[in-house]
């Protein structure tokens, strides 16, 4: 849309009720020089009319209502971390005042801020607002309006009322300081809880949930570390990254500390054009914030993102295209027919056959019960949606009632068709899964057996980067072709592949063989991890050994796999499930025709574009507050949901050690909330997280994955009441222990 620059200059002068000097330049943000009365507006590449009106109105609001000297004095007094809190409260005040004078601006403000929220300018999107700290939720609430559904606890709502009534800058500073002190108190409590958790860890001793192929207590001869490890290291991926987390943290701290040298530069604070009289759309400070103090994340992130819109911005913007070449992903699939055709599987299949018989004995009744429960829920839903209408055909049996009733026509019950559901699952096939792999496979087989019985289409893939199978599939490392040769496109890890274990189109024999095979593999690795003597009874071919965690590559693959699955099976709703126990390896993109680089949004802004839908997803710099990998995964998940319309469900297996489990939870969750979530996991076996990019994510403790066979345990001479209680407990346990199946039923019923 073409903007009439001259009209906007006139608008600014009219709003300010004075002859302002309005300048349009290639600057990163809007600003207002209070002394010279100069309003500077940026010339953005993608500027909407309502955004221009918003910028003009906002800066005029500061021109009319903000005292720059008072603003600078407050920041000097309370510190740079306070600035974000002050900025948010002051913005709420001056925007209220300017909209009171000019009500027509309200719509422009709301439209502009909502677009920024949707585009990720605040750091996260609407689905994650509830995970924001109080000050950040206040920021979203006052900028974007009530329609965002921002939630506040009862004791937090008072701040909305207080801020909405602020009229003076003095009161704005006072309220901002109160919020800042409250946030400091909360952060101190969280830091104390973290310290206590670490002390508990030290008392508990070593965490035995860490699994490594290179463990000195394991048989080194069984593992070819050069073959399976070097490739991952070359690509900057693999499980080994988790071992380097301490080094990464150290480097982050070094970067933070190195940037603190300019902290005493008072000139930057006092420059009106830099501060824009506290303008959100223009405030800038190169000095780093103190990580030990509360940070108004949405304030600093919005500022950084707005800078990137300027064509001459010194803030680098990296544009990446999501590669949608379906053949590239299909070539990475090792089909179930190929798996079952491998000659060396015979010992594994023989061992798994007995396991599958035991599985059927232990799970058949429970699955049948849940099938019945599902059918009942489905029928109840159909009855609820049913409507009754008259047909217009006379009912001869009611004709004798015609004198005192007009209800003499036949009726017809109409039951709307329900939506068809499908399931596509991606299973983490990494080394760290070994400890829980046996129980995980049990959960998986319960789920696919259920789907097969109720005729819900399904597919199951395991994602892996084991180089042994990769070499067979794609050739040696030096001869492989990149998944994309286009500059700026995402590129798959050269070792990445998908093991297609299950498909609803399998024959009965193929299904049973694959159940036996996956059970045998799951128990093999679990027994090996636990150093159980049973692990040596049979052998698993190297092609099916565990590897790293190419989760992001699996999500990218799902874009085309899920869409094809949906079309082939004519499914209305696909439920795409990712089951993992850790963060993803690094993702890659093609920097040039010959160079591949990792996607690492530490300081720059990264914009990812789906070339088919043209939808863009933004990852802004969070100044090291999130890990690089942790930023990318939610973005890929949101892209998948947008592209395919799928429900994206996550199951994250947590270790039994509290400290390790809390560290594995998303870093955008406060320590206090993590503690609460962990307590829920201990009590209920799992907790739901909605702030990770998934439609819904279940955090599950690994020890809770074991399925109950519904056995009734009572003491000799037990009373009828205790027997009844034991029966109820066994029935409930049989159902609730199959957490993946039970949650899937809730989705589709």
Description:
The chain has 749 residues and is of the alpha/beta class. It folds into two domains: 5-186 and 269-314, no CATH class; 328-376 and 418-708 and 739-748, 3-Layer(aba) Sandwich (Rossmann fold), CATH 3.40.50. The chain is built from 26 helices and 19 strands. The protein has an eight-stranded mixed β-sheet with strand order 5-11-9-8-12-17-19-18, with helices on both faces. α3 runs antiparallel to α4 (80-101), α4 (80-101) packs parallel to α6 (134-144) and α18 (437-454) runs antiparallel to α20. It starts with a helix and ends with a helix. The relative contact order is 0.11.
Q: Please, how many helices? A: 26
How many angstroms separate the termini?
Answer: 46 Å
User: If you compute it from the alpha carbons, what radius of gyration comes out, rounded to the nearest whole angstrom?
Assistant: 30 Å
Count of distinct strands: 19
Characterize the main sheet. 8 strands, mixed
Strand-residue proportion: 5-15%
Uncertain ranges: 205-286
CATH architecture of the largest domain: 3-Layer(aba) Sandwich
Helix content: 40-55%
- The CATH class of the largest domain, by name, is Alpha Beta
Mean pLDDT: 76
CATH superfamily of the largest domain: von Willebrand factor, type A domain
What topology, given as strand order, has the largest sheet?
A: 5-11-9-8-12-17-19-18
Which structural class is indicated by helix and strand composition?
Answer: alpha/beta
Total domain modules: 2
Kindly report the CATH topology of the largest domain. Answer: Rossmann fold
What general outline do the C-alpha atoms trace?
A: globular
């Amino acid at each position: 849309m073409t903007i009439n620059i001259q009209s906007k200059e006139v608008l600014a002068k009219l709003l300010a009720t004075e002859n302002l000097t309005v300048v349009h330049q290639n600057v990163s943000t809007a600003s207002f020089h209070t002394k010279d009365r100069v309003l500077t507006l940026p010339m953005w590449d993608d500027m909407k009319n309502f955004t221009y009106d918003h910028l003009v109105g906002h800066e005029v609001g500061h021109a009319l209502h903000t005292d720059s000297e008072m603003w600078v004095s407050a920041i000097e007094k309370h510190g740079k971390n306070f600035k974000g809190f002050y900025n948010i409260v002051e913005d709420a005040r001056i925007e209220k005042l300017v909209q009171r004078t000019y009500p027509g601006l309200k719509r422009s403000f709301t439209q502009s801020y909502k677009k920024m929220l949707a585009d990720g300018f605040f750091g996260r999107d609407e689905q994650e607002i509830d995970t924001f700290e109080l000050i950040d939720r206040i920021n979203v609430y006052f900028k974007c309006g009530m329609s965002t559904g921002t939630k506040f606890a009862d004791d937090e709502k008072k701040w909305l009322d207080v801020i909405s009534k602020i009229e003076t800058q003095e009161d704005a500073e006072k309220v901002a300081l109160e919020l800042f002190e409250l946030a400091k108190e909360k952060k101190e409590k969280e830091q104390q809880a973290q310290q206590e958790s670490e002390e508990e860890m030290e008392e508990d001793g070593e965490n035995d949930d860490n699994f490594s192929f290179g463990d000195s207590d394991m048989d080194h001869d069984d593992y070819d570390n050069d073959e399976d490890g070097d490739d991952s290291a070359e690509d900057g991926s693999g499980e080994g990254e988790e071992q380097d987390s301490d080094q990464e943290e150290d480097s982050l701290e070094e970067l933070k500390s190195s940037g603190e040298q300019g902290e005493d530069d008072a000139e930057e604070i006092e420059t009106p054009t830099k501060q824009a009289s506290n303008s959100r759309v223009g405030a800038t400070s190169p000095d780093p914030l103190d990580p030990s103090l509360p940070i108004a994340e949405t304030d600093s992130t919005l500022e950084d993102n707005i800078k990137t819109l300027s064509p001459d911005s010194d803030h680098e913007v990296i544009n990446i295209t999501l590669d949608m070449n379906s053949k590239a992903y299909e070539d990475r699939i090792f089909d179930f027919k190929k798996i079952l055709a491998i000659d060396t599987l015979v010992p594994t299949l023989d061992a798994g056959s007995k396991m599958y018989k035991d599985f059927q004995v232990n799970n058949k009744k429970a699955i049948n019960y849940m099938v019945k429960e599902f059918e009942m829920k489905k029928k109840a839903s159909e009855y609820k949606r049913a409507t009754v209408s008259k047909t217009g055909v006379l009912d001869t049996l009611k004709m004798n009632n015609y004198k005192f009733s007009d209800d003499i026509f036949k009726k017809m019950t109409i039951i709307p068709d329900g939506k068809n559901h499908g399931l596509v699952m991606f299973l983490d096939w990494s080394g760290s899964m070994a400890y829980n792999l046996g129980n995980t496979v049990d959960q998986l087989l319960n789920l696919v057996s259920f789907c097969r019985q109720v005729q819900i289409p399904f597919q199951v893939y395991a994602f892996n980067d084991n180089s042994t199978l990769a070499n067979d599939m794609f050739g040696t490392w030096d001869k492989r072709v990149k998944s994309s040769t286009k500059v700026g496109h995402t590129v798959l890890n050269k070792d990445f592949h998908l093991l297609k274990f299950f498909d609803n189109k399998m024959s009965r024999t193929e299904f049973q063989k694959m159940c036996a095979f996956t059970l045998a593999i799951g128990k093999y690795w679990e027994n090996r991890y636990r150093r159980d003597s049973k692990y040596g009874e049979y052998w698993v071919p190297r092609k099916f050994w565990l590897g790293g965690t190419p989760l992001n590559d699996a999500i990218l693959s799902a874009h085309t796999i899920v869409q094809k699955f949906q079309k082939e099976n004519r499914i209305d709703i696909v439920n795409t499930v990712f089951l993992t126990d850790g963060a993803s390896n690094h993702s890659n993109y093609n920097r040039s025709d010959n160079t591949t680089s990792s996607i690492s949004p530490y300081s720059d802004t990264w914009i990812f574009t789906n070339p088919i839908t043209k939808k863009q997803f933004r990852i802004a710099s969070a100044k090291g507050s999130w890990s690089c990998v942790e930023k990318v995964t939610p973005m890929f998940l949101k892209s998948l949901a947008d592209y395919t319309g799928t429900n994206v469900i996550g199951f994250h297996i947590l270790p039994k050690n509290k400290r390790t489990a809390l560290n594995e939870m998303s870093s955008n969750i406060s320590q206090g909330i993590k503690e609460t979530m962990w307590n829920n996991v201990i009590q209920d076996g799992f907790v739901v997280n909605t702030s990770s990019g998934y439609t819904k994510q279940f955090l599950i403790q690994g020890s809770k994955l074991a399925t109950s066979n519904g056995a009734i345990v009572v003491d000799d001479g037990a009373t009828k009441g205790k027997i009844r209680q034991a029966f109820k407990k066994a029935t409930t346990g049989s159902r609730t222990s199959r957490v993946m199946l039970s949650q899937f039923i809730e989705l589709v019923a």
